[in-house]
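[job 0412] stage=complex_fold ligand=flavin-adenine dinucleotide status=START
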Amino acid sequence: MKAPDPRAGRHPGRDLIVIGAGPAGLSAAISGARTGLKVLVIGEAFGGTLNLTDRIENYPGFARVSGRDLSQKLEDHARGYGVDLLIDRVDNLVPSEEGFRLAAGSKTFRSASVVLATGARPKKLGVPGEERLSGKGVSYCALCDAPSFRGKKIVLAGGGESAVKEAVYAAEHAEKIFLINDEKSLRPAGGVRLQLEKLAAAGRVEVINGNGIREIEGKNKVAGVVLKKPHRGKNGLEVAGVLIYIGVVPNSGLARGIRAEISDRGEIMVNRRCETSVPGCYAAGDVTDGGWKQAIAAAYQGTVAGWEAFNYCRRAERTRAGLE
Ligand SMILES: Cc1cc2nc3c(=O)[nH]c(=O)nc-3n(C[C@H](O)[C@H](O)[C@H](O)COP(=O)(O)OP(=O)(O)OC[C@H]3O[C@@H](n4cnc5c(N)ncnc54)[C@H](O)[C@@H]3O)c2cc1C
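[job 0412] stage=complex_fold status=DONE, emitting structure tokens
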């Protein structure tokens, strides 16, 4: 009797293409490749947003790790399982008869399944001066830009956990941080709260609650901000930089293009298996409506998406081979 062809029914392109190479995408690639799928990851940066994070202290197994080190470990792990990695931006994704077609620049790819792990981008304040002075003192990444504010006064806009964490990091460089948030108070968790309290007591961070930025001023570089309400009798603050951490916008454009269901917050809707409403298309991490926007949550969802993509590919193979 003839031995069964191990490639019978296999997709002619990749089994799985993962879009986005942050913790969600790389985890999806690792779990998919471990199950034997042919996996390609296409992402704008290996590690995604982790690269912009100074230190992570809540990723199990690492009491303290820099975002870049964790990114490198995830990348090495994926490469170790034979995952192909490509730095590029996917501009187009369309469903096709046998799966999906993708375009990244002039290159095209085919796959049986996809995982969308495209994360989220920082929200803009939308005030005069922000766009014009972006990269000239206006920044969305403390890790990238805080060292250039050494010995200077800066503003950090935002009141969430990430904003406070970044203020604590930026205080290692800047002379003083004005932490401006529009809520009545800040409620950072334990460790970060203690660090903030110490810095505030030393005059290195001044928290300004219930206020906001009306305009960012400066000719060729940031010179100051105009506040929405007076602070200590003045509407202006003379600062050399403005760091903005007021939330994120999910990168769900590719999902919209294939008519996957999107929440009213712009997130890709997924179930517990990380399935989107489009068969063969999974989503994981910060781009989904899946809850906590944290690296470990992204890694968990990515892992689930990779396994589920494996189940999907094997079912599709059996159908193509005429076994189902
Ligand atoms: C300042 C800050 C501090 C943080 N601190 C912590 C912390 O201490 N602990 C913690 O657990 N989490 C922290 N986080 C959150 C954590 O970084 C995110 O939850 C995590 O990175 C999300 O992973 P992800 O893979 O879903 O998305 P991302 O890491 O954002 O990766 C998505 C990647 O996809 C790329 N992409 C988007 N569209 C395309 C496309 N069309 N083609 C190709 N690539 C594309 C993006 O450019 C990006 O590189 C922090 C975040 C910030 C901003």
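The helical segments are 23-34, 67-80, 142-145, 161-170, 190-201, 253-257, 295-320.
[job 0412] exit 0
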